[in-house]
Design a protein that fits this description.
single chain, 228 residues, alpha/beta, Rossmann fold, 4-stranded antiparallel sheet, 7 helices
Length: 228
């Protein structure tokens, strides 16, 4: 469960990116975060995995208040959260298999369990046959699917996807959406920031709209609601 209580974030340059957000997201929900560019969506997402710290307010992940975490405790929080970036962030000198395995080596999973889990998640995203390939040998959609496999490899309770289809063609975008839906059906909370009107209006989920750092709309089975 994710709870935000009167959360504000003002940067050193005086820009207020988040301005009094109160929100609750239950375990197992699928939530779209929508709004104009510069509305505060990325800051909202970074606050959840503690890349940013609120200027004011409280954020709880499964009853843990993030602002009270010590630096050495942050990696343990992030083991519960898988993050999927628009630009993939794969390690170019590692193979597909090694990119996913690396995330599990960091948490000291036993080697036999690593191999089993890596092949399991690559199978889920349809890329077992690309295990020995390097990122440069993959299409953008394939790279994003590797990024998803890496994000879910540690059985996270929450997956955060920041514009995961932003650089992809429509057919590939729908492939990514089907994978995210499958992950969600298995019980993982999915929070997806997106500018895709078609996806939001077709795959009906909860929609949280942010404008000027504030939640202006929170609807079950919502719509995108913007024309740009």
């Amino acid at each position: 469960m994710i709870i935000m209580k009167d959360v504000h974030k003002t940067y050193d340059n005086g820009v207020t990116a988040v301005n009094g957000i109160n929100i609750k997201i239950d375990q197992g929900e699928f939530v779209y975060i929508v709004g104009p560019s510069g509305a505060g969506k990325s800051t909202f997402i970074r606050l959840i995995y503690r890349e940013e710290v609120p200027t004011k307010g409280e954020i709880y992940i499964n009853d843990i208040e993030l602002s009270k975490l010590k630096e050495k405790e942050i990696p343990f929080l992030r083991r519960q959260i898988g993050v999927i970036f628009q630009d993939f962030k794969l390690l170019p000198r590692l193979t597909v298999y090694e990119n996913v395995a690396f995330a599990l080596e960091v948490i000291e999973m036993p080697p036999d369990k690593i191999r089993e889990r890596v092949m399991e998640v690559l199978d889920l995203v349809g890329l077992k046959h690309k295990a020995r390939s390097y990122p440069s040998e993959l299409s953008g959609g394939e790279q994003q699917r590797v990024a998803i496999a890496r994000a879910i490899s540690n059985y996270p309770k929450i997956v955060i996807a920041d514009e995961p289809t932003g650089n992809l063609d429509p057919d590939t975008s729908w492939t990514i959406m089907r994978i995210l839906e499958e992950i969600n059906m298995r019980g993982t909370t999915v929070i997806m920031a997106t500018h895709s009107k078609e996806i939001v209006n077709t795959v009906k989920k909860r929609v949280i709209a942010i404008e000027n750092g504030m939640v202006v709309r929170d609807e079950e089975q919502g719509v995108y609601g913007y024309e740009f």
